């Protein structure tokens, strides 16, 4: 009898222990997963019971929660100028969120540990729960200018502008765009139907943030990096250094040699480096890349941040110069073709690094987070990512890029009374398709306040699109907006 009771007691203890383990497992390890499960109806209603914090840019409200007078949902998210800022704010749907709405979600919905004291005070005083406010670095005036200039004639592409001295992101436009208000409603069938329609549009990709999550061959804009590597390799070199500039560059082990654009000559076969940059000649930069070698070129790219993981706080797709291949491939990569793939943000970082005396600042999008009483919880501190080139090399490159705008292919980026530096790019895509049109720039050259990268995608600006004709005027509009010209 005693044996039977002991066995029953042990079984009860084991079951009780398993029960306690399961309770702890559910509460400690599975709690977040269960809380966020789409089948959790209570969570569905709770999402709209909290007054999420605002997302602002300076004094401009980009996202806010509006209280409803009727219905089962207390607050609904509203985006006053949704399409212009969609890839900055993101959306807040019944089951998910994106961009800043996602990366700063725990601040916005008040569940972040930093807001524990504020939640406790609100509970004690009986005030409704309110999330923290997120102020982004975006210059609303410049963002609207970029959106308007890029959207003219239905262009696809992206515009990124940075403060070269801090890394603050001043504009981040991606087109086509979408209306986050449509994806932030409370009716699931309507919201999910709208999302699926956008998601299935692979040709236009309105949900894709082209500024940070799509890479492209950078074309001739990349020649500034090749020039940087050339100048860093020998400090006695400058824009007047004579470089070989054949009409066609003979590439080893292939019959596909490298010509200049349209097969044109580049001077008389030998030209100053600044002339090669002004005219965007291919052959001098292809030869420079081959002479320096893959390792040196890859090292210079890494110093500008290429290949380094980035979050702004949204994750940024990696840029890459491509694998180590033969000399012919290296010549192509050195003029921004072959396997060379860059995000618009990365190309803006290259322009910004040259503008900022060779120092590349880490890009960031969140300026400040404040609680419902406007007390600061967190504030951005500019951080240097790397020193890409010496200040002397940066000064030489700035002078050369100013010459590109004043005397070369980028005349349409000129701003009255402001010295602008820039570089055009026309990147080949696949056989028979129109090229991408690129432009990178900074201004004013002697005290840069803004650095810009623009890409207009293949075919969206006509078959004859070029960096100088198509992308440079967009960058000019953004620079003027930042400088209030």
From TrEMBL:
It holds the Pfam family PBP_dimer_2. InterPro entries: Beta-lactam/transpept, Beta-lactam/transpept-like, PBPA_dimer, PCN-bd_Tpept. Residues 52-134 form the Penicillin binding protein A dimerisation domain. SUPFAM superfamilies: beta-lactamase/transpeptidase-like. Residues 157-480 form the Penicillin-binding protein transpeptidase domain. This is D,D-transpeptidase PbpA. It comes from Nonomuraea recticatena. The gene is pbpA_2.
